[in-house]
Amino acid sequence: MLTTMAATFTFLPQAQAATTSTPENVGAGAAIAALTADDAAIAAPIPADFAADFGYTPDVEAGLLVNPKGDCSSPIPLPAEFDTACKAHDLGYDLLRYAGSRGEPLGPWARQAVDAALARRMHDSCSGRADRTDRAGCEAMATVANIAVDLNSARQDYGVPVVEKFFGTEISGTDPTTMVPLFAIVGGGIVGLLVMLRLIITTLRRYRESVA
């Protein structure tokens, strides 16, 4: 069911995504294309004046080019395995902002690619968990996080991200008031999911102990 939900939220808004009539920033576009391709992420050609504008130089972490100051901005804690994927996502969003600041915003394809790479990498990071139950919980959190990110991007028509704060947590949107129902829905779903996963994990552990 979660996979179906993710597919619905990921692909449905794309048909409604905004289009750009202005020329796209070539440097930022090339960087995002490489950043979202796992086999070329380290070699992403970051624009020469990017560091001066954003106050940091992208660094390599676990085989990905990332924003070393980035993190998983979320109202709830996410698995530690997602950290590198989130930092790469932050770099991608800064590249979108870089292009926008020069009057050459990238089309919807760019933000969709950055979000899709985040989802893929979060799910991939869960494979390191040996316990099947723990891995399933990690996968579920990746799916829920992907839904929240994609809902917010769709709300902005996959345009240039704008930093907002919601209960002290940075999010990328345009109007903080519109994020309240979004996080209420997604947050409520996350809480329910965590409770359900906790019950499943507890039941499985008790079963294992009873047959041991």
Task: Write up what this structure looks like.
The structure is a single chain. The protein is mainly alpha-helical and 212 residues long. It has 2 domains: 26-166, Up-down Bundle (Phospholipase A2), CATH 1.20.90; 175-211. It is 58% helix and 7% strand. The chain is built from 7 helices and 4 strands, in the order H-H-H-E-E-H-H-H-E-E-H. The chain has helices at residues 2-11, 26-35, 50-54, 83-101, 108-125, 132-155, 176-211; strands at 59-61, 64-66, 163-166, 169-172. The strands form 2 sheets. Strands 1-2 form a two-stranded antiparallel sheet. It has a two-stranded antiparallel sheet with strand order 3-4. A hairpin with a 2-residue loop joins strand 1 (59-61) and strand 2. The longest helix is centred in the last third of the chain and has 36 residues, at 176-211. The radius of gyration is 18 Å and the shape is globular. Mean pLDDT is 78; it is low at 1-19 and 173-184. The chain crosses the membrane at residues 179-201. Keywords: Membrane, Signal, Transmembrane, Transmembrane helix. This is Phospholipase. Residues 1-17 form the signal peptide. One of its GO terms (molecular function) is phospholipase A2 activity.
